[in-house]
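Students often ask what a holo structure prediction actually looks like on paper. The answer is less mysterious than it sounds. You provide the chain, you provide the ligand, and the output is a string of C-alpha cells encoding the 3D arrangement of the protein together with iron/sulfur cluster.
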Amino acid sequence: MELWQEMVRDSVHTVDHVVEKFGIDRKVAEDLDEFFQARINPYYLSLIRYPGDPIWRQCVPSKVELDDFDAEEDPLHEDEMSPVPNITHRYPDRALFLVTSQCGIYCRFCTRKRKVGDYEKISMKGLESAFKYLEEHTEIRDVILSGGDPLMLTDTMLEKILQRLRQIKHIEIIRLGTRMPVVLPQRITTKLCNMLKKYHPIYCNTHFNHPWEITPESSKACEMLADAGVPVGNQMVIMKGVNDDPAVVKELVQKLLRIRVRPYYMYMADETKGANHFRASVETGLKIVEALRGHTSGLAIPHFVIDAPGGGGKIPLLPNYVLHMDEEEIILRNFQNKVYRYKNYADKNNPDGFGSKKKKTNGKKKVEKKKVEVPVLEDA
Ligand code: SF4
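The corresponding C-alpha cells follow.
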C-alpha cells in the first residue's frame, strides 16, 4: 500500500469516529452518515486550527445539512445529459468522464454527492460503453476525467484509461479534475508524474478554497505536476464562513500563482441538497472580483461564473464597468472608479454591425445625438 492509500484507510469515516472526534450527537451523526458519509484523511484533518474554521466547515458533517432536504440532488442536471453511463456530454466538444465514486475527502459542499461515496454509485462496468461513446463522437476533442476523484485510482488503472483515450485520435486534450493536490497531496508521487508525462497534453484542474490549504505539502504536489508538464488550474467556490471575503480570496489567488497554479474559475455555490448553508450572495462574489481587478495581477483573477441550474452551463459575471455604450462611444469606469471615454470603431467589413457609421435609417431623418454626460463616481 502506498502512503496516500494508508492515509485514506486511516480517515475519520464511521459514525463512531465522528461522534468521538467532533462531539456530534449520535442520532445526528447517524442521519448525516446515511445522507452523505464522512471521510477526512489525517492530512486534511491536521489543517483544522479550531472548531468551525474554514477547513472544518469543508469536511466535518454538520446538523444544518439535514435542514435542507428540499434542494435538488442534481442541480446541474448532469444525469439528463448522460447519453451512456459514466459520461456527461453538455458542451459540443467536451465530455465529462466519471471514472470513480471515491475521493480523498468527502467535501460537505459537494454537488455530486449522489455519485460520491459508495463504490456502486459509479459503476466501473460502465467504462466500456463510455469509451465506445467517446470513440464514436468525433466532435469530442477534450475529455475531463472526474468522479469522484480520478486520482483515487491506482496508477495502473489510471494508466489503462489514459492509454485507451490516447488511442482515440480526435481526443486532443485530457483533463484531470482532482482535489488530491489540496486534500491529500501525498498522492502526487514521482511515479504518478512519470506516468502522466507519457500521455500529454494533460491538464489538471484542482480545487483550493482557502489559503490555509496552501502548505509545504500541497505546494510540492502542484510544483511536481507543473514540472511534469501538467499545467494546473484552480476552480474555487465562494462559500459562507470559508472564503466569502475579498481579503481571503486575494491572499489565496496570489499564493496560488506562487505555487504555479493559475486561478481559473470562481463559482457561485450550486443549489445542492444539504449544502445551501454555504451559499453566499452574488453581490459578495462581485465585490470579490472588484477587489481583485486592477488591484493584483490579471493572471491571478479567475473567471467568476454561475453554473446555471438545470444544465445551462457556466455563465460569466462581471461588476458593471460599462456606464454607457452607443455607436459613437463607450463610457467606462476603471478599478479606481475613474471614468473614461473610448471612441467606438466603425467596422468597414461589417457595415451593418454595431459601431458602423453607415447605419440604416429606414428613410427616417437622422436624429442629432445628444452628447452623453460623463458621470462622476466616488473613488473606489
Ligand atoms: S473531491 Fe470533489 S467530487 Fe469529491 S467530495 Fe470533494 S467536491 Fe465532491
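The chain has two domains: 79-316, 329-380.
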